[in-house]
Amino acid sequence: MPFYDLDPEKLATYRGNVPEPDDFDSFWAATLTEARAMPVDARFTPVECGLALVEVFDVGFRGFGGHEVRGWFIRPVGGASSCVVKYIGYNGGRGLPQEHLLWPTTGRAVFVMDTRGQGAGWGVGETPDPVGSDPAHAGFMTRGIADPATYFYRRVFTDAVRALDAVRSRGDIDPARIAVCGGSQGGAITIAAAALDGKVACAMADVPFLSDIQRAVGLAPRDPYGEVSRYLAVHRDKVDAVFRTLSYFDGVNFAARAKAPALFSVALMDTICPPSTVYAAYNNYAGEKDIAVYRYNDHEGGGPFQERRQIEWLARHV
Prior knowledge:
Rossmann fold, 10 helices
């Protein structure tokens, strides 16, 4: 894949031009108030997985609408006082415990949130999305897209904040030592959770999805953004309404409200999340920040090199 986006010099200062709804803050405040009116009811059930150096718990907690969301809580034997909350990429599920051992090997717990309705493309998912949808294109990008109140990611982002509430319900985890992380869709959820929760210690967002969305829909040569353009090719009269809905979920608008220290990564040949859209979120991020640039990588980004960098970076923050 050749370079197809802005020149690196322009990327470094690119901020995008994402509209911000007048009621963005009140929309999300009302959403979280409604969700938190119900107890999180987090249940951590020990399970035996044959992993001698960690303890694994099957988790259920109440997310958006009181719906049960699944997860894994994995900690080193003997416990941990800090935790990394991990969000999953597009159409992946929480998978199996042995897939999430990086952070426990650093002495921290990890809480892996299943993504409702997903987990049939890779990584086993076990959380349904019981909410219906207007007509939608295959995938998740257009489910409920006619209105911000019904959009799929309203439920997912709320689940993400409730996952943090679930972790804080544990007496062994220091609430001041909770980080959030994820790649692609998980990176988008990471930025949203950092902004909406406002109390995480730090955030690590790799090649984040769902930023500068209108530009991405017209630029990315690969899905999932193509789901939106194909939807609009049929629903020609809904362009303005669709992009209005998406502005409530755009990582640029969340980034401007996030204050926790953050480590981003971007790949300059990324054909799923165009690099300019990642920089739009990064350059609008309100907190202390750094970004790792992988010039010749596609959406896989930094892979193990970025994990090594995250281990070093996180040691300074949690």
